[in-house]
Specification:
Elements (H helix, E strand, L loop, with lengths): L1 H16 L1 E8 L2 H4 L8 E9 L13 E6 L3 E7 H9 L3 H7 L4 E4 L1 H13 L2 H19 L4 E3 L2 H18 L7 H8 L2 H16 L5 E3 L2 H19 L10 H10 L1
Parallel strand pairs: 2-4
Antiparallel strand pairs: 1-2, 1-5, 3-4, 6-7
Amino acid sequence: MMDAIIRAKLSEIEQSEHVKIILAVEAGSRAWGFSSPDSDYDVRFIYIKEKKEYLRLEEIRDSIDWQQDEHLDMEGWDLRKVLRMIYRSTPEIYEWFFSGIVYRETPEAQELRKLLPEYFSITKCAQNYLHIASMVFRTYFRDDEVWQVKYFYLLRPMLQIQWMLEEKNVPPVQMEELVREKMPDEWKGFILEILEKKKKSSELGKASRNKRLNQDIAETLREMERQILSMKKEEKKSWDLLDQYFYSVL
């Protein structure tokens, strides 16, 4: 039922905002595989404006915040903004294209998907994920008790970094796949147990901080930072493929 509501709202956005939505996916905990029964829906979409809008001298709005309530959060980004983020190898865009829950994907999005490998940068993505993980660790893992759900928001980007360092490609979106493939055996069972609890309950609550796990996480973050900083500097990419794509869809 919710799928039908979301698809109807996408059409409503197109008519009201005079845009064409080329990709719409789930991008929150439902896409990541640790949603609760009452988790909200985090819908993200990419849209194209009318050609004349891109020819205006005045800066145009590059995002649409359509609905944000306790059940549904819908946000979209303009194609030009997305292309610039792809050039910078922003992980968030890659996650949209690798989401397992797709509400709409047009031929324009399928063509754009083909360009992603050309601009994927392990260094840039890893730096981004390291920043996220480090911030979560500093914010939520200093007290004697920690919110158990924060383990997912901490470990997911760390495991994605581990995946990229070892596999040299785009990491999976799903938390469980990352845990099973890249989590050390010592902690795998502990995290999978919390994951199953999260899927069945609305809130996990707090628990005593696991000092040994915290120490391992801190050491791993430092080692990841060292590895990322030691990576060979990448050559600057050309904008040509993205420019050609942008011209073609307009």
